[in-house]
Amino acid sequence: MSKSSSKGQQTQRNDVFSLLPYAYHEAGHAVVGYAIGRLIALVSIKHASSYRGCCRFDAYAESTHHHDQWQKGCQNPELLTILYAGTVAVSWLCEQRGWDYEVLRPSNLQDGAEIEQLSREMFADDAQRTVALGACWKQASDLLITHWHAVKTLAGELLALQWVTGAEAHSIIREALGEKQGDWRWDVLQTDPINQRRTVFAAERKRLVADFLKGDITEQELDDAMARIQEERLKVLQHSPAWQFYGSLF
Fold this sequence. Notes:
By secondary structure, this protein is mainly alpha-helical. The relative contact order is 0.13. The protein has helices at about 5-35, 60-65, 80-95, 100-105, 110-120, 125-145, 150-160, 165-175, 185-190, 195, 200-215, 220-240, 245; strands at about 40-45, 55, 165. Helix 1 (about 5-35) packs antiparallel against helix 7 (about 150-160). The protein contains 13 helices and three strands.
């Protein structure tokens, strides 16, 4: 193996490690949003802006299915709970791994600013606002405790894939929680072309890892093959009607 190849692979491993807090942050938002009843549109840790990650919900589809309680302008404290979930998830990750949360706090500043603004719009009285924020923090914490396995599973998928569609995220969370019964959200998401091929992509990734562990392919060949799967996933997404919504996030 050449020095340049080895250095490139070490950089990739370092990148994955540095993305771990972002993966847990966005997975926290997604899983708590799912538990509350929201329709996930996209979860990503792909670097497309100054902040390395996003979790988007499909407010339009929610509204058309008569679930408009989370629309912009609605005074719904559950919006604060979802915003808190990313910060809580990262703080727990740090606690479990013995990391200094203060080092990672800057990654949560954007959510903090949104919580500050939104909570002041909801609650004019400071005392009432303080009580409400405490309740939302507790709700996020309680939901994460109950669904932590789903957070870890989704974070792992984000590290491997960089992004997942809403349908993929719902599938990953449901499988992690052992849920069999779907709801209105699953009816909306079933047509997602990437999720329809999720098991095929997953099987191919598993086969590649097995081939690498057996010594049948090199680490570089493994990385190249994984990159081709990512390119194929993106191509499928680009040719779907949903790209009009997703495109600006890449």
